[in-house]
Amino acid sequence: MSTLALTGRTLSLEDVGRVSNAEAAPRVDLAPEARRAVARAREVVERAVASGKPVYGVTTGFGRLAEVAISRERLIDLQRNLIRSHSAGMGRPLPTEAVRTILLLRANALARGQSGCRVEVVLALLDLLNAGIHPVVPEAGSVGASGDLAPLAHVALALMGEGEVEVGGRTGPAADALREAGIEPLELREKEGLALINGTQATTGLGILALLRGESAVETAEVAGATTLEALMGTPEAFRPDVQDARPHPGQAVSASRLRALLRSSEIREFHRHGDPRIQDAYSLRCMPQVHGAAREALGYARRILEIEANSATDNPLIFPETGEIVSAGNFHAQLVSQALDLFCIAVADLAAISERRIERLLNPDLSGLPAFLSPEPGLRSGLMILQVTAVDLLSELRVLSHPVSVDSISTSAAQEDHVAMGLASGRKALRAVECLERVLGAELLAGAQALEFRRPLRPGEGVERAWIRVRKSVAALDEDRVLNKDLEQMFELVRTGALTLPEEKE
Length: 507
Description:
Layout: E1 3-6, H1 13-20, E2 27-30, H2 32-51, H3 75-86, E3 90-93, H4 96-110, H5 119-131, E4 134-135, E5 138-140, H6 149-159, E6 164-167, E7 170-173, H7 174-181, H8 192-197, H9 201-231, H10 241-245, H11 250-262, H12 267-272, H13 283-286, H14 288-310, E8 318-320, E9 325-327, H15 335-363, H16 365-368, H17 385-401, H18 423-453, H19 462-474, H20 485-496
Parallel strand pairs: 1-2
Antiparallel strand pairs: 3-5, 4-6, 6-7, 8-9
Helix pairs in contact: 1-4, 1-9, 3-6, 4-5, 4-9, 9-11, 9-14, 9-15, 9-18, 9-19, 11-14, 14-15, 15-17, 15-18, 17-18, 18-20
């Protein structure tokens, strides 16, 4: 088994993706330099406690109660009470891959050595991760400022041997799971409860999982779009390199290049190259580089934000061992992440919108020149008529999900936390949005594959042909009406798992 060593500064989003998959995850450990950094920061906290001076969250209460001094003999109780009181999430449990991501990201943030916890706290998080013990974390309970308090408190609760965890698909008491794994419950010391819950890791974790799927979905969108273009006997002229050079946005150029590669050596194109009366295609075909490229640019921005956030210290107060200072600040505020995920949802919604328009062109005989709804016998058989209806339903939901939550601040904690980011809501909707997109793309690919049946024996471009073969391994051509639900679910799985991205396709 490979090992991933956390430094607090070098975690990649691909690392996060690997660790989120419990079945294929590497073992995660703390790098030696990170151990030293964490120990140095802890020494600063212990000196502050010994001095008796007031330090937020160490020798005082929290939030609006920051002015309340806590006696030294009650400091351990302060941290334990913090975790219990803040374990106030609600709703369905987050999926296992999200919880694993949160454990990893919080450990990585603490590994920077600016949070003031002991090394044992970071190792306790990694013990859960490596043992496959996943705290039950309700999906709601954070406004994206002062950290993702409730979600992270539910994680910390499990470290203490309280609350519930999931192990191997079964849920039970954390105390039992720790005992069976030979892991001692953690007694939190000064600052450690606050260090565990004051951060953006739930928001960031959901965002990373959504982004990784979104990046794969963009690649699949180009496979779907190229398939539709071939089925409709469209022209790739708009994808020429000189056209992209005239408007040199990088994302647009990448999308155009990929479309050209997918359409290379097309027999369908050669068949209708001469004598085609159409001067240009509809926007949903002709403007794929511009629309898909815009999504690439948006996702590129979100990736940059999430990469930085995954390697940041986001709790409060922060410890600076070089100067011995403990500084109260606001790195827990998730506005940057929340806004990036709002942009992500907008890009995802528009990818689905252009895909749905291509589906319409495939199914509408007035636009396609193909049998109505791609039915072998229109009238007696309805073919793929309702496929577009399903896609439109998903698109309507996506348009709601594209509404930003990062502008919706609501004052909390007796007005001490009077501007918040609503980050966790942005993470939740990003994950749902990318699922909706994957389903719409699956529907387009199902329709595109069926439309290509009517163009046989002519073959489409090399990349499109390979995608068609992969689809046909999972879903048979529609010869007569059948229940389409299983076909659509199979297509969703192909899109979700990246089976149709064809990464080897290059111009």
